[in-house]
Amino acid sequence: MTNLMDREAVSEPENPLGFDGIEFIEFATSKPQALGGVLEQMGFRPIARHRSREVELYRQGTMNIVVNAQPADVPRTVQPVERPVLSAFAVRVRDADAAFQRARDLGAWEIPVRARSMELNIPAIHGVGESLIYFVDRYDEFSIYDVDFRATPAVDPHPPALGGLHFFGIVQYIGAERTADWVEFYSRIFGFKPLPDRVRFGIMPSGLLLQSPCRNFYLQLIEPDEPARYAPIDEHLQRIGLGTPDVLATVAQLEKRGIEFLASEKVHSTARGALTKPCLGSVMFELVHDEPPSSAAGP
Amino acid sequence: MIFSDFGMDTTSLAGSLESKLAVVRQAGFSQVVISATDVVGHPAGIAAGVRAVKASGLRVTGLEALRDYEGLDGQLHAYKVDIAKSLLDICSQLGGGSLLVEATTSTHADTGADVVARDLHKLATLAIPLGIRIAFKGVPWGRTAHDFRAAGEVVFRAGCPNLGLSIDAFDVLAAKVPLDDLDAIDPAQIFLVQLSDYMWQAMRSTEEEATTATHFRVFPGEGAHSEGLASFVNKLDAIGYLGDYSFDVYNDDYLQIPPETVAGRARLAAEWLAETVLRRALPIPDMERLRR
């Protein structure tokens, strides 16, 4: 798989989509309140509900998390079950429709449009496994939530972030010898760039890191360990990485709120990073030492 | 006896999908190339076809075939992308493997190198989330690639990690392509090698070649070019090819005799290749991993 490096440099601009971070990350679950409880322990606040679907919006600082309990109506998407699953992420781009069309032309699978009256049509493509990737361009003065969501009365729509938490990345589990394929997918469609092996963040160094064109968001691709290489694997989004300027202080705050962190010899909290124990059987958050990006310092 | 490197092609056999799979298995093969028509033509529907393949326990080496895909414009291109997506869907339901893509023969196709590379890159990108590899194959009457050399250039230009080659021995033998030209091919880029022979010493025209290719192929060891086939397979071994071999024997006679008889002939071919030609007595360590 060396031809990735040998090829002539592409003449595409560095950031073809005007990629500008992550607008939201979505979980699917049939027990939205249980997950909501975990999110609140992590510092998120419920601030709005979707107008027509069983979907709730949680927020802290610059981060939006969508909890989707609506049964899936599109093939190859996550059917909500009790165990929460990372089912989508939304990228902020200059022009969502143009980004979507470009992705289609390059070979992304589009999902059928499903907006109802008075709702925005948010274009999306299929990502890894059953997950989706949305394109959002209204995130500045006017947001997608103004149209699709009804704000919860008497709730601060902009709760501050605990410990300066902000989206840092997503860890994606992939099949054996699939790294080159996924590097191609994210580079070609979004302009992500693979980082050299010596660049590592946090305490979970395996796999390959891809950096977003805005340089504020990372995807970490992890192939199975040696003994598991022949077993069939369902590729999926595994966990969210959150950046914080002071990992240990943030860990202490979260522990007070009831979040437990792994404390084994191999994996334990340090100034570089920390990893929560799985909640509800599958939900893990990884903390990574990182200053918030200046453009996303919070409202 | 090791011939796990070799597999049959459902197109070589008469009968229902279930009986084809059963005879392939009974003959001792562990892998098979599935023709999409066998799955979608299943009388109980495509889901039943997929179940039959899964229940057989055979590994699906590849699904054939997407044809006349690249180089089209506008509505024709959109139509072919839809066809490609349907085939990718079937391939994914069958458990992945490769989708075989034959170089276009369409007179509507733009054969410009950049257009062809762009279209194949798009197809390979569609295949990435499904974990499928695209095996592109030159055919003698193809307009964008008539043999593995031209197909290799197309694949290199498109430059996508899950896009590689399928090489058909028949085309190499018929066109007398020098085997040393395989030296220019990266063995990791060869996703499948298809083996078959034919009875005549020479073919007088492209028409005769096309007819022979689609109706009168025989299994390796049965035809007039055993020596050429043996050299071809040994050459692939020498450049480090460790992947799958499949017998793409399209023969009208074989479709009117019992499939067991045909599978028996395939078994003899596999034994001849494994024991006499390649002398692979033992599996190579880490073979599964190398093969992916």
Q: Quick one: how many beta strands of chain A? A: 15
Helix content of chain B: 40-55%
Strand order of the largest sheet of chain B: 1-2-3-4-5-6-7-10
Percent of residues in beta strands of chain B: 15-25%
Can you count the helices of chain A? Answer: 6
Number of strands of chain B: 10
Poorly predicted ranges of chain B (pLDDT <50, ≥5 residues)? none
Question: What oligomeric state is this?
Answer: heterodimer
Shape of chain A: globular
Write down the Rg of chain A: 19 Å
User: Could you describe the largest sheet of chain A, including whether it forms a barrel?
Assistant: 8 strands, mixed
Mean pLDDT of chain B: 92
Order of helices and strands of chain A: HEHEEEEHEEHEEHEEEEHEE
Can you walk me through this structure?
The complex is a heterodimer of chains A (299) and B (292). Chain A has helices spanning 3-6, 32-41, 96-106, 144-148, 179-190, 247-256; strands spanning 22-28, 45-50, 55-60, 63-68, 85-92, 124-126, 132-136, 149-151, 166-173, 193-194, 208-211, 218-222, 236-244, 273-275, 285-289. The model of chain A is unreliable at 1-11 (pLDDT under 50). Chain A has six helices and 15 strands. Chain A is an alpha+beta fold. In chain A, the strands form two sheets. An eight-stranded mixed beta sheet of chain A has the order 6-7-5-1-4-3-2-8. Chain A is globular, with a radius of gyration of 19 Å. Chain B is α/β, with parallel strands linked by helices and 292 residues long. An eight-stranded parallel beta barrel of chain B has the order 1-2-3-4-5-6-7-10, surrounded by five helices. A two-stranded antiparallel ribbon of chain B has the order 8-9. In chain B, helix 1 (17-26) packs parallel to helix 3 (46-56) and helix 5 (113-127) packs across helix 6 (148-158). The mean pLDDT of chain B is 92. The interface between A and B is medium-sized, with 28 and 20 residues.
